Amino acid sequence: MFYNNTIQMLEQVSEQLEKENYIADMLVRTLYSNDVNNSECYRIIKLFKEKILGDVTI
To answer: Which DSSP category does 35 fall into?
Structure first.
């Protein structure tokens, strides 16, 4: 029983990480496909973080 629960939990964590990586990759591709330079990219990601999390340090 414990083994099955552990496997299920690991699968859920793996799926969550895959989803997060997919979304992050989409964001990066979108930024670079719109000819965004590194400083613009940083400001956009910072703005995105502030809109989602508020003004917190990560």
So the answer is: T
